Amino acid sequence: ASSVARLVPGLALATAYALCPTLLALARQPLQERETLQQLAHWAYQFTPAVSCADNNCLLLEIGGCRRLYRGITPLLETLRQALDEREHRVAMGLAHTRKAAWLLAQNDHAPALAHCAGREALDRDALRQQLAAVPVAHLPVDAKIRAALAQMGIDTLAALLALPEAALGKRFGAAFVRYLRQLRGRHPDPQPVFVPAPAFRHG
Questions:
Q1: pTM score > 0.70 for this model?
Q2: Which helix (H) or strand (E) holds 42?
Q3: Residue 148 — left, alpha, or beta (φ > 0 → left; ψ -120 to 50 → alpha)?
Q4: How far, in Å, CA of 74 to CA of 92, rounded?
Q5: Digit-coded pLDDT (tens) for 153-195
Q6: Is the Cβ–Cβ distance between 48 and 63 less than 8 Å?
């Protein structure tokens, strides 16, 4: 019978080697990662002028205004996927109405098709709500102390968190945390620095 090594993020390297002796561990190269992200931002500018660089090597693309050029969301997403495959980039996509929600879904490797109604070329709000509701609170990009406190309270999913009164959350965790949750749901402005391509670009 075959066995599968269960390697998860955060696992100690020694433990990972014990579980999988053939494991090949590579050191991250932050400078090269930033350069690659900048190159991808230049490349993505052909699809939409609203490109932003985000945490964890992510690009945020506002595609609502350009989907008609590609005859809908589905052809645009397929074009993006195919082009990225040709460039030998493995990516996880998140599709949502807000930047923070799209980022969060991409981090949790949710397929955008689950919240995408191809027939209407629009996001299915109910499906999107279910996707976000299932996201573990442990994956939120907030202070580790807040995540630990929520875990102690038995709040383990975004659905359980959003069911709590904002006023109580504000008193317990502060205004910045409540603002993040409101931005996540599109209830508060979330301005992002827009990527501006260089006047000249050369790579080689």
A1: yes
A2: helix 30-44
A3: alpha
A4: 16
A5: 999 999 999 999 999 999 999 999 999 999 999 999 998 888 8
A6: yes
